Task: structure prediction
Amino acid sequence: MFQPKRQSGSMPVNRLLTLFISGVVAFGSLSFAGTAALAASPSASPNPEVSIPAGETPAPPPGESTAPETCGFCFNPSAYSLVKGSSLWVVVNKQRPLNPITYTPAQFGSVNLSKPAADAFLKMKAGMKKAGIGTLILNSGFRSYNTQVGVHSKQVARLGLKAGEALAARPGYSEHQTGLAADVSALGQGCTIQVCFAKTKGGKWLAANAWQYGFILRYPAGQTATTGYQFEPWHFRFVGINLAAEMKSKNITVLEKFWQLPAAPSYSY
Ligand SMILES: [Zn+2]
Result:
């Protein structure tokens, strides 16, 4: 790069005179000054606007950081409570009732699920349609404490406590009360709320892809001793994409094992 001789410490008199004269001329004539600035090489120009090399941007002002690094699957295990009824990650099972026991979601979406779960459900429905798998149906979403009181007492009156509770969760102990659990089926594919749903096109697609939308198959086959529920290939629980992806990457299918919580095969009578 050309460096002006003035940086060397010695400058011929004629050079100084030339600089002095051109300065006076430039000062006295705006039009000439403009032409001179355009013609000047960057290294010789005092104009800071042309002294920044092309492709470089000025450093941000002090105190202003650059954009944070994005990380799609950063996992922070303490991001949400496992206890509060309103938490995205609340774990509800036969040993862990809702907290508070009559909990109701504060905000619902356009389907009968809490807002984030409803939004994710609709995305999953669109994804399933786009993949040519069929139309996803929400058969059952949020169920209130009072609704569960009715369902539970009806089954227990009919079948007795143990057999009745095998079909209907105890009020305050149903994951559906969180507004984050969805019983689903695929239009026209049969096996609605039946184990054979796992063998349908929709059931297979959901088992493989629901995690991408933040849902997990909450009661997988062979985990009854931990979850307290038989295989329910239709019951999906929204936990958000980060947790669903983390569970998938660690190959852990149930919340109790992922969080190292006690197994919940039955209620404490
Ligand atoms: Zn369910």
Residues 141 and 182 are 5 Å apart (CA to CA).
